[in-house]
# Entry
Amino acid sequence: MADNGVQKYSEYDHHDPDITLENVHESWDNLRRQCPIGRSDAYGGMWVVTGFPEANEIFHKPEIFSSSPLIIPPFPQALRMVPVEVDPPDHLRYRTLVATPFSPRRAERYEEPLRIAVNQLIDNFIESGRCDIYDTLAIPFPTLMGTTMLGLPNSDAAKFEEWTHRIIHMSATDMEVAGEAVIELYTYFYALLEDRRENPVDDVMSILAEAEVDGVKLTDEELMGFCLLLLIASIDTSQKAIGSMLHQLATDPELRHRIAADPSQTPTVVEEFLRYWAPVQPARRAVVDTEVGGVQFKEGDQLLVLLGAANLDEREFPSACQFQPDRTPNRHLTFGTSIHRCLGSHIARIELRVLLDELLRRIPDFELEEGAETEWSKGQVQGVVKVPIRFTPGQREGA
Amino acid sequence: MRVLIDDGRCQGHGRCWSTEPQLFEPKDDFGHSAVLGGEDQPDDPDLVTRAERAAEACPERAITVVI
# Structure
């Protein structure tokens, strides 16, 4: 047992059913106050990183800390997710394949279509005066964005959402159900890519269907690894981030009014929502014996990087546990950093900004249903997944 | 002033060009940043503040402002 207090993490399990919305920030903060890197016995033993400088250093050493596997415990039937689980120097060759559709310039082009889409979704519930806004907005909006940009039929949205949920949130508890979802996903995308080879269009799936690295076509395993990542990362992460944001807005009228009064603040507030509610908690693996923050790692050691906790580190963020809508600078780690920085970050920022602007324009006041129970999604994609609200009914804007 | 971007550090987070579009722009599909009009910039106080704010906001500490 190390002498720096690492034993204090011995009980930590990111899938623990006792993690709730009410205690998650406190538990992240408590862990980090004990020590910025601790040892847990869960999942065959893992290091849990909660400090900002330590997480930052680990991300900036991708040759030493491989991002494969990214998930603890691994998804059943897992194929290496591309490009996030590919180490340098190969990583860049795979990431380059999809750089253009995820580029900042391309992301900007989605702003108006997203604005139209979010208003259509709001139209669907604005006359009712009550709904679970997680179901009516946080679930469908990211799926619509994901299917649009990847080139998938939105009519299959329910299927994508179900696979994503089973894979990310049931792998730790029900391998069989999660594994079946992975196989169904592979089967679906295999057929879709076949079709795109015959009938290419201007979408990400068509790019992948014909993609080559060093003159060689991607293997089926690489293609399926790509599709697995692109689907689950575009849907699940944004859903949880939006769920948390909506829940906070429902409980904080002052914040709602402040944002609605000056939409020019939205980009800054979005960064603070991202810092405070980091959905993704990724893993790393030491490929050699090494040291960070005074902790010795052995080759093969796995690390869970709790970005939610790192984002609450006082060494980086003054009054870190307070939500400060005008916080600057705000170098949060929610999208990761270094070479594996989130490919979809430019699109995700626009998605959050547009949703916030349009929702508060049309429904400036809403509150949680009295006595409503909260629900926190655990594991490696965390966030609020139940936001039942009441509000004064409004008018539809669309036909 | 001179505004320098270390291309070896920049990872395309886009914090500079999204918050200070008067000074920075994405130069490629990865979102790597470039200084609009080149690294030599006028010593305009507003521009200096913007450059310093961007340098502070950069997650990779890739921006240096020389006055």
